[in-house]
Amino acid sequence: LRNIQETAIFKIQAAVKEAVRVYLRSQDFTEFNSPKLLPGATEGGAEVFSLDYFGKEATLAQSAQFYKQMMVGVFERAFEINPTYRAEPSATTRHMTEFIQVDVEMGFTDFNGLLNVVGGLLQSVTESVWKTNEADLKKWNAKPVVLPAEIPRIPLEKIHELYTEANGEDTRGEKDLRPDEERWITEYAKKNLGSEAVFVVDWPASEMKFYHRKSESNPDLVDRADLIFRGVEIATISMRENRYEVLLEQLRTIAGGDPTAEGFKYYLQAFQFGLPPHGGFGMGLERLVQKIIGLNNVKEATLFPRDINRLAP
Q1: Beta strands 197-201; 203-204: pairing state
Q2: How far apart (Å, rounded) are the C-alpha atoms in residues 145 and 187?
Q3: DSSP letters for 134-198
Q4: What 3 state SS string does 224-256 have?
Q5: Which pLDDT band holds residue 244 (cuts at 50, 70, 90)?
Q6: What distance in Å separates the CA atoms of residue 138 and residue 291, rounded to the nearest whole number?
Q7: To bridge 289 with a disulfide, which of 116, 179, 301, 309 should be the other Cys (CB 3.0-4.6 Å)?
């Protein structure tokens, strides 16, 4: 890490983190910190680290999801930049078991306004880091980021159709993008739309999380987007279901959750007493830095990476 080439990565990372804070503060967001020891899995699923907490079972936080939604009722616009833990048995260039996530939540917004804030954040951060750290970026032969005034929004099924037509491999009807489709669509967007980032919109409601909000215009879809930047997903964005009774029903039917369980009941109280229409996103800091610089592996943008094979130093 004393090698000046390597040091440049983490100077850039520090600048990116500061640029995120500057932009969000300019948009009236308040920073907070949520706990990373929880009484249960925030979003369900088996990809959690469990531990003994004085005789009780606890987990390491998969995200700040519940807490940032609750903070909408306090600050209206809230964010944190903190570690996140996922027990994913994935040995890839894009996965780690511990990573830093920019978690953002905003109240009194619609889906369009939410996407505008995410796009503004990416534009502001990439412009800022090139002003403050150009010499460090050039050490890695990084290329300035190409983004239009508004990042293109392309439906999931449209991407499948474009990819199928261009590559002769049929992905139509799939519920997600494959990694090669993520790479392909940003190459397509750069060439045809002048953008190295795209919002993937119009996701099927059948794949939604229990706290997501269905589209009012089409209940078969959910108000969700993925932000794909230079070939990899760096953020998942969605509107949240803020109607208490609807949220309760979705918790039971989609997640199979118990509303009286400690992992849910305090979260649900915030909705019982009223939360405004709101939405938010989680953005991976290391993935963002990796793609700004042009590194091949997210672990290269991590000081002390943790994955399925690495627990030291």
Answers
A1: unpaired
A2: 13
A3: HHHHHHTT-------SS--EEEHHHHHHHHHHHHS---TT-SS--HHHHHHHHHHHHHHHS-SEE
A4: EEEEEECCEEEEEEEEECCCHHHHHHHHHHHCC
A5: very high
A6: 14
A7: 301
CA-closest candidate to residue 72, choices 14, 28, 116, 19: 28
Contact (CB, 8 A) for 286 and 301: yes
Residue entry with tokens 């993935």: 287
**Residues 156 and 203 sit within 8 Å (Cβ to Cβ):** yes
**Sign of the CA dihedral running 201, 205, 211, 215:** positive
Looking at per-residue pLDDT, the higher value among 174 and 40 belongs to: 174
Scored b (16 or more CB within 10 A) or e, 48-65 reads beeeeeeeeebbbbbbbb
Name the token pair of 152.
Answer: 């293109």
Cβ pair 20, 137 in contact under 8 A: no
Nearest to 278 by CA among 121, 124, 66: 66
Q: 234 exposed, middle or buried (CB, 10 Å; 0-12, 13-18, 19+)? A: buried
Q: Are strands 37-38 and 278-284 parallel, antiparallel or unpaired?
A: unpaired
Instruction: Give the C-alpha separation, 141 to 127, whole Å.
Output: 16
User: How many whole angstroms from its chain centre is CA 138?
Assistant: 27
Backbone torsions φ then ψ of 260, nearest 5 degrees: -90, -5
Q: What length does the chain have?
A: 313
Query: How many other CB atoms sit within 10 Å of the CB of residue 8?
Result: 19
Residue 44 has pLDDT above 60, yes or no: no
Report how far residue 158's alpha carbon sits from residue 155's, in angstroms, rounded to the nearest whole number.
5
Residue 40 has pLDDT above 80, yes or no: no
Tokens linked to 64:
């700040």
Cα 218-254-67 angle, rounded to 5 deg: 95
Query: Sign of torsion, CA 131 132 137 138?
Result: positive
Minimum mean pLDDT among 9-18, 34-43, 221-230, 273-282: which range?
34-43
Structure pTM?
0.95
